[in-house]
Hints:
Distance between the termini: 88 Å
Strand order of the largest sheet: 5-7-10-13-16-20-24-27-30-33-36-41-43
Domain Rhamnogalacturonase A/B/Epimerase-like pectate lyase: 49-298
Mean pLDDT: 86
Pfam family, one: Pect-lyase_RHGA_epim
CATH topology of the domain at 48-232: Pectate Lyase C-like
Keywords: Lyase
Protein name: Pectate lyase superfamily protein
Largest sheet: 13 strands, parallel
Shape: elongated
InterPro entries: Pectin_lyas_fold, Pectin_lyase_fold/virulence, RHGA/B-epi-like_pectate_lyase
CATH architecture of the domain at 48-232: 3 Solenoid
Radius of gyration: 33 Å
Strand content: over 45%
CATH class of the domain at 48-232: Mainly Beta
Amino acid sequence: MKKLWTRREILATLGLTGLTLASGIRVFSGRAVEAASSGTTTTETLPGVNILSFGAKGDGKTDDTSAFQAAINQIKQYGGRIVVPHGVYRINGSLKDIDNVMMEGEAANKTYWSQPGYLDFDKGTVIAGNGNNVLFASGMKRGAFSNISFRDFALLANPSSPRNMTFVNCSFSKFIAILKAPGGESESYHNFQFISCAFTAYETGALFLGRIIDSLWDQCIFVGAKAFDWMQAKSNMVVKCRFEWINRDSAVVLSGCQLLQFHDNYFDRISGNAFEIRPGNAGISIANNMFNRCGSGTDADKKDLGFKDIRKSFILLFGEFEDISICNNIFRKGLSGDYNGPLCPKYVFSKRDKINNCRFRFKNNECTNGFTDGFLYDEEQTYERIQIDTDQVFSSLSEYVVGLARVAAHDITVYNSADVKISSIPPRLIVYNQAKVELDGKQEGTVFGGQVNGYPRYERPEVIVENYPKQSVTGVMKEEEFTIPVNDFVRGSTVYVSLGAGPDTQWKLVDNDNATMRMLLPLPTGPSNNKVYRAAIHIPAGYAKDYVKLKVSSSSSGSGTVIVDAYMASYSEFRTRSFLDKMMK
């Protein structure tokens, strides 16, 4: 009975039947594979040669460069495969002119751990360099490699743009770097694919560096070194990969990159940040990933690496980028070791100081159990240079929502029904509350219903006081006062004040005894009918008096009249229709 092979089945049985690549290149291990063609069943086997037939020794000592090059020269004329039996094949030079060449070993070796007994480099097919040479030097066009361990090379290949170079079920270790094309230069890499490969490098800084374009990493494992340090990379995909025990300040660094996708990956036990997003990036999608136990500041041996707090987050943000999307991910804190160690990370995000335009999308992520200290660490502690386009409605109040509201580009609404203790209520946060909320800091946003630090809150927006008759302040000879009643419903919360006034004025908030509580910003100069003063005034939770007063005076040194023709104080930021009508006249 005829069997039709799907791409998934071919990948799953690669060690037996080989791989059919999207480019049309086929790699086989010598067994016949049934294929459907115009409704008929055909059997095909690609021609192949054994590397031993060209004089290769595979003893780990003899230089087998000439034997491999001779096999490549023969196969490339018509296309075919080179079978490389188990052994250690020493390559002290470089191989060139890879075209229509498929090279297949017997097995890639386990290279996951660095401890003695875990690295079985000599049990499968190993191609080893001398530590300073480049394996593929020039002339690469089309090639596919499977079931081979590569180790001890300076680079896998020089910068090049082949039509397709694919590595399947291969392992890589003891490289200075796998691919390296410094940003800002004309050289780059194109069209490399790594599928089900393992990269283990404890000795080097980063594996894939610089300008790498139109390339793919699918179902790969990265251990030890930084995986990607890209500058001006473009149109790459990293999917279903695992990043673990990376003893560096970050696993992925992006600078000036475009159109990158990181989807369905797993990041676990990164000593520093999983991602470091620097200036100049555009069109970056980080979606459907699992982030766990990053930012511990320690290595796999529990050694303290001396990282600052900015490295103790899942994602480090710089700014000056655009169209960055971080959506549908799960962020979880955990013990830094397998069974012990401190919980990490401290934060989900950290922000580098002095860099503007840090705005990105962050939607449908799970972060409630994702940090120990806070959602965001800002190196400047101002939170002014970051804005997040995020979800607008949440079903419960938590420290995660508080941190998000602190830097949100829009208001966030929460429907809370459980008692909770949080740090503060930021201005962008609106809480519809049915429980008791305990705050360590200020309530600058609005809470409707329930209690905050024992004080009740209005169930809806309330006008505290309104006054429409015109009142005037002449020169510096007189101050005009406006009284705002204070009751339990506004203690510890924010009162919003709106006034229509002109020309230029100075405002201050005083208590019952006329002691200054706060100086407010002066009203800007301009036509009086365009000048509406709006201010958010925080009433301290411990304020025991019955009212506060706004005092207005002219800031001009000469004579003149300031007219205040409407005034309103309210609980929540809104203006009544009557106030709006007054302002329009």
